[in-house]
Amino acid sequence: MLPYTDEAYQLMHDGAIALARVESNGIRIDTEYLRKTTHRLRRRITHLQNKIQTSEVVERWKRKFKGKFTLGSTDQLGEILFGDMGFECTERTATGAYRTSEECLSRINHPFVKDYLKIKKMSKTLNTYLLGIRREVVNGFMHPFFNLHLVKTFRSSSDSFNFQNIPVRDPETGQMIRQAFIARPGRRIVEADYSGIEVSIAACYHQDPMMMKYLSDKTKDMHRDMAMECFKLSLEELTPADKSDPDEVKRAKTIRYCGKNMFVFPEFYGDWYIDCARSLWNAISSMDLKTRDGRSLYVHLREQGINELGDLNPKEKPRKGTMERHIQKVEQDFWTKRFPIYDHWKKTWVKAYRSIGYMLTKTGFICQGWLKRNEIFNYPVQGAAFHCLLRSLIHLQRKLKKYKMKSLIIGQIHDSLVSDVPDEELDDFLGLSREVMVDDLKDDWDWINVPIEIEAEVTPVDGNWFQKEEMKIG
DNA sequence: GCCATCGGCGCG
DNA sequence: AAAGCGCGCCGATGGC
Question: 10 Å Cβ neighbour count for A249?
Fold first, then answer.
């Protein structure tokens, strides 16, 4: 993929300059917090490492590998657990080795495995994040690196330290890391995100009427609807009756999350029912999914006639009464009944690419060369979605300067802007963000004929990144 | 000591 | 017919 129109070239040019400014601004780091936390985490890891030394598994390990116990060797771990100790291996890697991912190991009920997983998680946090940040801090600031020329779709990337994969989904890890990122004195960290930008941009290409309805009608919720279908739940089950009950809100949110990230997005990216069925089924135990009255979704599904996952064998027709069969049906409905125009667009788009040998994206990039089917319909969406964000970054930075504001853009994560904003500028900044990210964008790019929305999260004055909370933009 | 690959895992 | 898009970083491993 390459910039093709003058406008696309200009976007890359202005984008590179704008990102250089973001890098130069930098992010304030709480170095004292970082030092203490690193120390504490190191001690916790050492403690657990000492604890497992007496385990029968380590004894076996040393006997098998000439007295050497290399905790980080996934090959050796697989040989011991699945090869020697007889635990059931549910999945192999690409090269045929026993897979030892958290997903696979969590099925094993053994104290060593539990400690092993804890050590792995803490080591990742320590080595990749805490020490990674430490390495980059100069005079209390970290200056991230953003690349604009490395990604196949002309998205951006970030490296050494990667600012675009900081933990957030697991609150415990997220807190430990994000507390290190702090606002400058008298300021707040503000994060402004596009909501569902890739879904919206995809709709600009395919124009599916049902998708248009989902995007324009705020009472509709595609992810919730698909979660309902996947788990055979009623609307009431996913609508917390008592919104002040945090457990009930969290329960509904978790199930919706599964519909979104284990069915809808995978399907959009070109996945199929076999993998969706597997992850949805596993999520019931790993994420402890329950009905409103506290019954496991396994029990609920059994009442609905679904007793097991199924064989997941692509060569055979899924059997009745399996999750596999159910999700196959949900997938069929999804593409033939719910989004037939989207489905049709994918087919014709792929066909056209293969026949003429190139494609042009909405933002003026040309894409050529041998691509797999899924890449053909994903690249133009991913690229153009990011270009919306990049355009916003450039123009927000210009307007901040024009109005002599002190707010600084300090980072960018594919569909979001991270800024450092003086308390007294907060309202102006949020208004300006909306103006640039939504109104100006739609004025400039008339191919965007779907609703675009942003959300903002804001920390307290002098707060840290973990303290961000949603704020209405008014 | 450098480099590439693999498995694993963090993010959008 | 094929069967999840895009990244970067870590440790282990093996070749040079």
Answer: 13
